[in-house]
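DM from R.C. (forwarded with permission)

"hey, sorry to bug you on a friday — could you get me a structure for this? deadline for the figure draft is monday and I only need the backbone to look sensible"
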Amino acid sequence: MAISPVTAFIFMLTVIPISQAALSAHYYHQTCPQAEDIIYQTVHNTSIYDPKVPARLLRMFFHDCFIRGCDASLLLNSTPDNKAEKDGPPNISVRSFYVIDDAKTKIEKACSHTVSCADILAIAARDVVAMSQGPWWPVLKGRKDGRVSKANETINLPSPFSNATTLIQSFAKRGLNVRDLVTLSGGHTLGFSHCSSFSARIHNLSDPSINSEFAMNLKNKCPIQNKDRNAGEFLDSTSSKFDNDYYKRITMGKGVFGSDQALYEDFRTKGIVDSFAKDEKLFFREFAASMVKLGNVGVIEDGEIRVNCGLTN
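My reply, with the result:
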């Protein structure tokens, strides 16, 4: 999740509706049948050498879809005339763009000008979940790549300091409901956060929702005069495995982000957290369904198929 002032966040939200574009699970079956295999092998091989890749690619997909919809605008590089999304403050910590670039290069050799960067990212997000022992789902394909990317729009990303009401409003602007919010937040089962995203919660604020022992552990890892820029905390205790441990920890007051723990402090979301904490299979089914729904947000039909994911054609 990205950091942004809550007040600005509320007023700058733009509506990005669920797209009516005709996506299909079989979109490339005739034109590039090897596309999904190429993407899987690329993601799998890079994940072996860099265990952080799964969490990074899943986060990349979320951050892309939440701004202009799932159009790969996050992948565009800044130019002298424009600062792009990837250089906006909340995305400075987004990493592993090279994995998508590598997959794109291989796909261009197999079937040029055919597979969009937006589809590659959507497929990669599914693959990293599945290879982390999470659910698999058929990715709907046929997205086009956008031509616009603006760093100042990244303030619209949900913040780790957001309360439940702000999060519900943010997801609603994208055609996603309260259940989608709680379900997709489960993506935090993979991942790590630097101290800056939760230090205020443990040092400057009195947050009664956090487990006192857990808070002390976080303070030890992230002291006020912290000089280790890499210090932080995994978002659940099985950070390389996609499971429901994230929800179990929230029920114990051990959510790392204030926005995570807020899901257990609000009557609209608490019951859903409890249900996922008790039933991992239910969480898996609903996560797969919500990811398909997220993948439909803001899909454009008048974009392009980029040859290089970092550049418009």
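R.C.: lifesaver. The chain has a mean pLDDT of 90.
me: no worries. The first strand starts at residue 192 and ends at 194.
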